[in-house]
Design a protein that fits this description.
single chain; three-stranded mixed beta sheet
């Protein structure tokens, strides 16, 4: 279908369709919260831009990427270009585009749709607003014509500050979250930790409001007390048990409780219940592993919760098989994921700082906005991954395969690139490369990998990685350029591009020390 055919055909349809790469896609229905956010923003923009020659449009207005390209329906669009003043149906020259994220569209809005929008020369700012929690992703084009991303969320703002603002420079407007999320109803989400806290508030056997005075002992009171004590045990995660017992001992509450136990049957039941601690602990872990083992490809987020819990309790996740699984926004800091298979998984906004991803399969992973600072990625396969805005500060990418990966807005400050493979990497600037360490020892042309001794790449237990760094030059594991001269010429080209030199060179001492060893 040609663009002209699409425009004529869609006029006769009862619902809206977007046009992408000669194909049409029906627009999905949105929630009231989604619409509230779009209307709140559009109303504020309309008032601010009144009489300034700008047009503010909402979801029923098409935006053209080019005269013969794709057509989209953003949630809010602003154009201050005189050429759009008299347009009836299509905006061609927007300066601001806003998409309100829904669970069914957020990955597409962050990746493919943004890639299309970036082709619009007039576009200066792109805003993604989460409809399920207070979180805003702000994309802005800088003076070097490169897109930068800033994330605003309650997690990243001081605890006492529940309201914050985002400045839209292209239209000189500041929007606050209180106005943006006015009357928005957020969905109820399962939060096991919050449930535990609430249960503890309701069931805490040491609560002054719930326990009668010791001077008023009755059989009824004793029974309720034991029930609350049992409920507390069942509701308390394993990792908080010892902490709570320590508190009881320090405050002598346990002795008061034992003194209230009127008969030997209750005491024996309590002892039996305590001795089942390890068994219940193992059952919980078995359940989590069962969810993970059966959850490959899960999109609901259930597997994500199980993986987070096991990681928090110190379990190794090495060899995990979760390709094509939705792990969006998971906290896996310090996770041990050696040789894990996460290909084509959704890892956007993941917290993977200091994680062990050595030799992991991360091909075609959706990594947008993830934090992999100080992570270990030696020999990892990151080919064709979408890593827009990912943070690799001080990460070890020695020998990693980043061929055909999208590295737009990626932060490589202080990262180790010794032996890394960048053939056909997308949106990787010389300035980004020069912020990294050992970039002259990376490979930029078509190469083959030499994998001698790959099975004995690490003689030590790979799961023990914590403070030490790994250097792939110790092993016969490297990318061999098919044309070594072409690779050297590419390195020389980067070196001679003085405009890309960083103002503050990266600190590479930690990687230099590896070579000395």
């Amino acid at each position: 279908m040609t663009p002209e055919e699409y425009l004529a055909w869609e006029e006769e349809q009862p619902v809206k369709y977007e046009y992408i790469n000669a194909k049409v896609y029906e627009m999905t229905r949105e929630t009231l919260s989604h619409n509230d956010i779009a209307l709140n923003l559009a109303s504020a923009l309309k008032s601010h831009l009144q009489g300034k020659g700008c047009r503010v449009q909402i979801a029923d207005t098409k935006v053209a990427v080019s005269s013969n390209g794709s057509f989209f329906y953003p949630d809010v669009v602003v154009s201050c270009d005189p050429r759009d003043t008299k347009s009836r149906n299509i905006i061609y020259y927007p300066c601001l585009i806003v998409e309100v994220l829904s669970s069914s569209t957020e990955n597409f809005d962050r990746a493919q749709k943004f890639q299309h929008y970036r082709q619009i020369e007039s576009l200066k700012e792109y805003l993604l607003i989460d409809s399920e929690k207070i979180c805003i992703e702000y994309y802005q084009i800088n003076e070097k014509n490169k897109w930068e991303i800033t994330t605003y969320s309650l997690e990243e703002i001081a605890d006492s500050q529940q309201n914050f603002s985002v400045e839209l420079e292209s239209i000189n407007f500041e929007i606050t979250t209180s106005l943006l999320y006015e009357n928005v109803v957020f969905p109820e989400k399962i939060n096991l930790e919050n449930d535990r806290i609430e249960n503890q508030k309701q069931q805490d056997f040491s609560s002054a409001e719930e326990i009668q005075s010791p001077e008023k002992e009755t059989p009824e009171k004793q029974t309720r007390l034991i029930r609350r004590f049992t409920d507390w045990w069942e509701a308390t995660p394993v990792d908080n048990f010892l902490e709570d017992i320590d508190y009881l001992l320090k405050n002598f509450v346990i002795f008061e409780i034992i003194g209230l136990l009127a008969n030997i049957t209750l005491i024996l039941s309590l002892v039996s219940w305590l001795t089942g601690f390890q068994e219940r602990k193992e059952e919980k872990h078995f359940s989590a592993w069962s969810i993970i083992n059966e959850g490959q490809g899960d999109k609901s987020g259930v597997v994500k919760t199980a993986v987070e819990r096991l990681n928090q309790e110190g379990f190794s996740l090495s060899g995990l098989q979760l390709n094509k699984t939705n792990l969006h926004d998971a906290n896996l800091s310090g996770a041990r994921l050696f040789q894990a298979n996460l290909s084509e998984a959704i890892l956007s906004r993941n917290k993977l700082a200091k994680a062990n991803l050595v030799l992991a399969n991360l091909s075609k992973v959706f990594f947008i906005g993830a934090d992999l600072s100080e992570a270990y990625l030696n020999g990892a396969n990151l080919s064709q991954a979408n890593m827009i805005g990912t943070n690799f500060t001080k990460a070890n990418l020695g020998g990693a395969n980043l061929s055909e990966a999208d590295l737009d807005l990626v932060n490589l400050d202080g990262a180790n690139l010794r032996g890394a493979y960048f053939f056909n990497a997308k949106n990787l600037s010389n300035a980004q490369i020069k912020l990294a360490c050992n970039w002259k020892e990376a490979t930029y042309v078509k190469s083959t990998i030499q994998t001698n001794n790959i099975d004995t790449l690490f003689e030590e237990n790979i799961d023990t990685i914590s403070e030490k760094r790994i250097d792939t030059t110790r092993f016969e594991f490297q990318w061999i350029p098919e044309n070594k001269q072409a690779n050297q010429e590419r390195i020389k080209e980067i070196e001679q591009d003085k405009s890309s030199d960083p103002e503050n060179p990266p600190d590479c001492s930690q990687w230099d020390s590896l070579m000395d060893n």
